[in-house]
Specification:
The structure is a single chain. By secondary structure, the protein is an alpha/beta fold. Helix content is 47%, strand content 16%. It contains 16 helices and nine strands. It has helices at residues 2-15, 35-54, 62-71, 74-77, 81-92, 103-109, 113-119, 137-151, 169-178, 189-198, 235-245, 268-273, 283-290, 304-320, 325-328, 330-348; strands at 29-31, 57-59, 159-163, 181-186, 204-208, 218-224, 246-259, 295-301, 352-360. The strands form two sheets. It has a seven-stranded mixed β-sheet, sandwiched between helices. Strands 1-2 form a two-stranded antiparallel ribbon.
Amino acid sequence: MWKERVRGKVEELFAKAGVSFGGNADWDIQVKDDRLFEKIFSSGSLGLGEAYMNGWFECGRFDETVRKLLDQGIEKAAKTWGNLFLYLESVILNRQSKRRAFVIGERHYDLGNDLFELMLDKEMVYSCAYWKNANTLDEAQKNKMDLICRKLDLQPGMKVLDIGCGWGGLARHAAKEYGAEVFGISVSKEQLALAEERSKNLKVKYELMDYRDVKDNFDSILSVGQMEHVGYKNYKTYMEIVYKSLKEKGLFLLHTIGSNDSSKMTDRWIEKYIFPNSHLPSAAQITKASENLFVLEDLHNFGPDYDKTLMAWYNNFEKGWSQIQKKYGERFRRMWEFYLLSCAGAFRSRKIQLWQFVFSKGDREEVYQAVR
């Protein structure tokens, strides 16, 4: 009786979003194990993700399933006690403290360069591409890197800090195409090993370093995909460090995924399996942290481009999976699919955004010209 009531509640909730269990639409869910319903009922998004990893259901277009569920606001109707505990932990603890800074590198970015080489573009840029006038992922990522360099008005000989430099794609682009001298920092040993190998004979230097240990001064600073790991308790500190490290008349570009809400926690499944100690900032949280420090010169939202980027990564992953399946295994494959497809659906629903902020210290003689 209890199981039937739980199933009915879950089916009713999903039906409001136009998603059925056993239906014929690509976004409908095909149940393989009836434990799915109680898992969703008791654990919300965490339960849904774990059920997918367990193979308890299949779905032709799970990205569309997520989009439809989020459009209906189902995440608000599926709050669980687990969310309360994560919220309290986020409020009480500094989950992105300096002591924990390298956890994300070890648990996510160090998973294996073979995985990311297979999934990403040829320069291995692990952030939203810019698809304006682009037909391929390689073109779109080159567009994005060029967009950033032009927004920063990079000139030959400029000294640039790249916070969260990844595998060095943007650093190499800035050095090769704009003549910049780039210092890239990351908390991932695997990223830096490959970045150094690919950046020989360029004016690029890398170091395994937390942003709180930056001491030098730079003409320009860029932060791409880093703010998601900073945490709301550290946003002001982050901005203060960037301000102190940026020379007069310099520009700071902040590229980040963003939330429509000023929350203090992240999705439970993403936190547990993909990005530990992560947090998506809101525009309000970012601009609040910049108060009395920076002038906001430009804000550019191209969140829909991340949907397209994630689907390109998913297609690359699926196409190349056979090359790495023995190393990672079936449960990892399903976990990674859930990650890429659910994030694509979230961007498609416009629940999350992709922002590029350009900040100055307010002492530029010329008026900043926005670049698109």
